[in-house]
Every structure is written in structure tokens, then in C-alpha cells.
Specification:
mainly beta, Jelly Rolls
Length: 365
């Protein structure tokens, strides 16, 4: 957990404190946030205790995680929360942000850490992540890749701080959180492989019986589980709602991509339709658009991929994959939804731990 947090305060010059000799509580300041045009000072506070003698104060630091003291930089990234937990992916271009803020040096890939910011209790929990460098990654000239980490469900945007450092400041210890998540899917359990241990139902995909949708094993494109759609009677659609649990929060004017795999077998009526529905801030229906319609009666596993732009006033998006066939069936697997423009790092903060104010303590007479 990080204990270094930036607060904007006037820079102190010289303090003259008339305090008891035994102990003085004070703050040590350090940190600079540089902008592309002009630097802005940000003082980072860590609490310390000072034992006073005549005209001299010796700091005795409270305990903090040792690696937190040595990290020099962090950038911010804002993520739009959803009504479910999901694995966010961001464009982590460390070379770009270092150049923007005129910081020379060689990026230390081992130094990446992520902490959530802005929590009501003031904590900054460390967040497990996976970093996938671009194929042409270079620590000096092209330190860029994708960062993937879990974002828990919520109703507002969340801010995360991505800490990192340069090799010139000393190599940092490597951390590992296991195998990275599947790249670039902002849906939860889009592969349908995560099953509830007690009920064996799909996690985050609560199917209603009237929708004529069920999870099946042994007929998947990847893994073992896929979803089958089969209409119970003529003229009634069997439909899979996406996301499975709620709707997807969007930003007006931004582009989003939906993809999934499907196969059809002996279908007899409107085998496959893909429709997007838009809702406003109050979740009131505001419009829809048909993205695709499959006319074949039989097809092997094939991928569908389509883009759409969130219209004005749109706040929520929900897709439906439907079929009207009453024979055979349609199978769906590996559903993926992503924003075209991934969140990027911004607002580089440089933590200078040695910028401490001069403190003079005058003992009481």
C-alpha cells in the first residue's frame, strides 16, 4: 500500500516553531509535477516524528513499505467503471509521457506498479497487473505496451496511479502476479469458462428461461463451454444479452467494437441477428441499430466483428444476439467488447523525496 500522496500546498521556506522540546510532529515535503509548458510543484507528504534539542531536529521516519520510498514517477489513468468486474486494458506508452514532460532516461520495465487512488479511506491498494510489451519495445526509444488489470464494479470513473522508474535510479525488483488475462476484453467471462462452483451456472451471465439460452459443454470453439440459442416456438426469439449482467457504460462519440464466434446447424428461420440498443443516463431506451444478420442455415465456427459509435446523450449500451430457429441451433463463444481508443497515461508526477523544509526549533524558556 502506498503512503506517498500528492497534496498542493505552498512551498515552505523556513519554519520557526515554538514547541515543547520533547517532540515535534511535522511533515516532510517532496515532489514536482511537470507540465509540457511549465512545471507545477506538488509536495508529497509523509509523516515523521522529530526529537528536538537546542536548535536541531532529527527526523525519525514512521514505517512505510521500503520500495515506496524509492519510486520516482507515477502517471494517472482514468477508467470508466461498469456494473460488473472486468479486466481493463490501457495503452501504456512510457516513452511518450516521459518525452512530453521532458524527462530523459531509460525505462525500467521491472519497476511498474499500479495503485488505486481517490478511495474514501485514503488508502492506495496495490493492484495486480500484467504488462505486455509491444513487439518493437525498446526501453530507451519505444517503451510501450498494454497494461491489463482488474477493475471492480462501480458507478463512477476510477483513477489509478501507474508507478514506474528509470534504470538510472537503480533497478527495481520484479513482481509477478501470474499469467496475464486474455488481452483486450472489457466483458466479464466472455469466454464462458468461469462457472459457479455451487450452481455450475456461468459467472456474470444470468440466463432467463424465457430467453431460451443455455450453457452447453463439449461444443465450444475454445475451452469447453459455449452458449446455445434455440427458439422454443415459431416467431419467438432466443436471445443472448451482452453484457450478461447489466449494460456497458459508454462515452458519447467514442467507437466500440463487438466480436464473437458463432456456428449454426440446421436452422430454419432467421438464424442470427445482432442488434445494439442505446440508453441514456437514466437508462431510458433512446435507439437501436441492426449490426448484422446471418441468412445461411448452416455454418461452421465463424467470427463476427463490428464497430459502432456512441450517439449523443448515450450513456449505456447493450447488445442482443438472437435467433428465431426452432430446429438445430446456434452456438456462441468468445464474446469480446472493447473501446477502440484505449485509456492512456497522463499527468506525470515526479516524486522528490529529499526536498525537506528547514525546521528550526526554539526550546521553551
Amino acid at each position: 500500500m502506498l503512503n506517498l500522496w500528492p497534496i498542493r500546498v505552498p512551498r515552505p521556506s523556513v519554519f520557526s516553531l515554538n514547541l515543547p522540546r520533547e517532540m515535534v510532529s511535522s511533515m516532510r515535503y517532496g515532489g514536482m509535477r511537470r507540465g509540457p509548458m511549465a512545471p507545477t510543484l506538488v509536495w508529497t507528504a509523509t509523516f515523521a516524528c522529530f526529537v528536538a534539542s537546542a536548535g536541531y531536529v532529527q527526523p525519525q521516519e514512521t514505517s512505510v513499505d521500503e520500495w515506496n520510498r524509492n519510486w520516482r514517477y507515477y502517471a494517472s489513468v482514468r477508467i470508466r467503471c461498469q456494473s460488473y468486474d472486468f479486466d481493463a486494458e490501457i495503452d501504456a506508452d512510457f516513452t511518450r509521457i516521459l518525452k512530453e514532460y521532458r524527462v530523459p532516461g531509460t525505462f525500467d520495465r521491472r519497476s511498474i506498479r499500479i495503485c488505486e487512488a481517490g478511495l474514501s479511506d485514503g488508502s492506495a491498494p496495490e493492484v495486480p497487473f500484467a504488462f505486455s510489451p509491444n513487439p518493437d519495445f525498446d526501453p530507451t526509444f519505444n517503451a510501450r505496451g498494454k497494461l491489463q488489470f482488474r477493475v471492480t464494479r462501480g458507478v463512477s470513473d476510477r483513477t489509478f496511479h501507474v508507478y514506474f522508474d528509470l534504470l538510472e535510479n537503480g533497478e527495481k525488483p520484479l513482481v509477478s502476479y501470474g499469467a496475464p488475462q486474455a488481452s483486450g476484453n472489457w466483458l466479464s467471462n466472455g469466454s464462458f469458462e468461469d462457472l459457479d462452483a455451487k450452481t455450475s451456472s456461468l459467472v456474470d451471465w444470468p440466463f432467463e428461461r424465457r430467453n431460451a439460452v443455455k450453457a452447453v459443454t463439449g461444443a465450444a470453439r475454445t475451452g469447453t463451454v459455449s452458449v446455445q440459442l434455440l427458439s422454443p416456438k415459431s416467431g419467438q426469439a432466443a436471445s443472448l444479452g451482452i453484457p450478461g449482467n447489466g449494460a456497458f457504460r459508454v462515452v458519447s462519440g467514442e467507437k466500440y467494437r463487438l466480436s464473437f464466434w458463432s456456428r449454426g446447424e440446421d436452422t430454419n428461420d432467421r438464424p442470427l441477428l445482432v442488434t445494439a440498443y442505446w440508453y441514456d443516463l437514466s437508462r431510458k431506451y433512446s435507439g437501436h441499430e441492426l449490426m448484422a444478420e446471418e441468412g445461411r442455415s448452416h455454418w461452421d465456427w465463424s467470427v463476427f466483428s463490428g464497430n459502432l459509435v456512441a450517439p449523443p446523450e448515450a450513456e449505456w449500451l447493450r447488445f442482443y444476439i438472437a435467433t428465431y430457429t426452432t430446429s438445430g441451433g446456434v452456438w456462441i463463444d468468445d464474446v469480446c467488447l472493447t473501446p477502440e481508443k484505449l485509456p492512456r497515461l497522463s499527468d506525470l508526477t515526479i516524486i522528490e523525496h529529499n526536498l525537506a523544509p528547514v525546521i528550526v526549533v526554539e526550546p521553551n524558556e
